[in-house]
Design goal:
Elements (H helix, E strand, L loop, with lengths): L1 E3 L4 E3 L20 E3 L8 E3 L1 H12 L5 E3 L9 E7 L4 E8 L17 E7 L2 E7 L3 E8 L12 E4 L31 E18 L10 E7 L10 E4 L4 E18 L16
Antiparallel strand pairs: 1-2, 2-10, 3-4, 5-6, 6-7, 7-10, 8-9, 11-12, 12-15, 13-14, 13-15
Amino acid sequence: MRYNARTGRFIMKSTNYRDPAQDPDFWVDSQLSWAGAPGSSTYKLNAWYYTFGQFSRYIQASAIRIDSTGAIGTDVINVAFKNPDGTIVVIVVNRTPGPNGSNATDSNTSAKTLKIVTPDGQITDTIPGDTVATYKWSSTTGNSLSRSSWSASASNTNGSYTAVQAIDGNPSTVWTSGLSEAAGQNFTLNLGSSQTFDQVSLNMGNLVNDSPVTYQLFTSIDGVNWGSPIASGSGTNNMTNIIFASQTKSFIRIALTGAQPIGGPLRRCIGL
């Protein structure tokens, strides 16, 4: 096993520490293999032992599972947790499953470039094949607002892809306008009551190449009087984090200010 203190990664497969001919049981479904009778002979640590280390080293007691999604069509999978001290831990696996889902063989999985996208920012890294990697950071954003009283509307909606699907907390559902992106199109969120907030994150979920081309963000007490925009900018793929001075308002509106042809990288779906 190699440990990279800079990235916090345990590298599961390396010719520096493992010779398949000398350690043929490395991928079997047990944490160790005994050379003779269990408990009374020498042993070798297997992949499961190091995999368990990804969880036991960084995930604290009473940590909670938090939602995370992966890119469509890759061998990279992940799971994420929030620790009691507020730190976030993401464990990522880059490994092609063996026959019938077995882990008992070398898969010779290729290296992958991955991007972890969060309300705190984005992390880009290259993860070698047949590797489990752990990423941990201290979150700088506060807790998300409760969605229980939220409602939403949009200037355009494509069939059953309604605005409420952008705020239902389900990463597999989306809202889409069904139109080419154009200035003036907008999405309005009703928080249900006056709330205090200082960031809006537009989460594209599995649609990793999507983003609003350019936008303005407005807030309102009554949903009628909007005033001047409090933020503006260009979207970023995966997730657009919009940070601004703290607001205590009941309504949020995101209005597009640029154009993007339909069929381009933006599929017009927004999660808040």
